């Protein structure tokens, strides 16, 4: 938003980096899987296994199982949304105040998702990656509704 121009530019850059990492991981995984399967069909199971072990490590490292960049991005975007939405003080709920409440709930969902992605990098909390995935789906839907309502 216009309220935090420096943070907005930083979060845009972080989002581009995250999207690039996720796409790169997917491409590496696809090509690596095809190559490993080709080796397997050529009766070279040892080479196929060794190749897949290497490809899988790179895939997981870049974006298949590491959510720190995405977690930081969604926390940053959500905090900006939370801080930029202002509640109107009125006796009766208005459309604007309901929109502000929805905006804050969306932002809180994003912060929760981001924190789950960040703590997912701690080996003892690796199951937080599942929470990150589910919360990100919910957050994307809520953010989409928020965007449509504000247009």
Q: Overview of this structure, please?
A:
By secondary structure, this protein is mainly α. It has 5 helices and no strands. The protein has helices spanning 5-41, 45-64, 68-84, 95-119, 128-150. Helix 4 packs antiparallel against helix 5. The protein is elongated. The two termini are 14 Å apart.
Structural class, by secondary structure, is: mainly alpha
Can you give the helix content as a percent range?
over 70%
Let me know the number of strands. Answer: 0
The average pLDDT value, as a whole number, equals: 87
Tally of contiguous helical segments: 5
Comma- or semicolon-separated keywords:
151 residues; mainly alpha; 5 helices; 81% helix
Describe the structure concisely for a colleague.
This protein is mainly alpha-helical.
List the helices and strands and how they pair.
Layout: H1 5-41, H2 45-64, H3 68-84, H4 95-119, H5 128-150
Helix pairs in contact: 1-2, 1-3, 3-4, 4-5
């Amino acid at each position: 938003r216009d309220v935090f121009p420096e943070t907005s530019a930083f979060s845009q850059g972080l989002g581009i980096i995250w999207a690039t990492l996720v796409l790169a991981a997917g491409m590496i995984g696809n090509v690596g899987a095809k190559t490993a399967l080709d080796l397997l069909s050529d009766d070279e199971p040892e080479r196929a296994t060794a190749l897949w072990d290497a490809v899988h490590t790179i895939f997981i490292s870049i974006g298949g199982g590491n959510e720190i960049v995405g977690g930081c991005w969604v926390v940053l975007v959500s905090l900006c949304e939370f801080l930029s939405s202002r509640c109107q003080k009125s006796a009766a709920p208005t459309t604007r105040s309901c929109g502000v409440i929805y905006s804050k709930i969306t932002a809180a969902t994003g912060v929760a998702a981001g924190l789950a992605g960040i703590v997912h990098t701690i080996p003892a909390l690796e199951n937080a990656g599942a929470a990150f995935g589910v919360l990100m789906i919910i957050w994307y839907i809520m953010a989409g509704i928020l965007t449509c309502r504000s247009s």
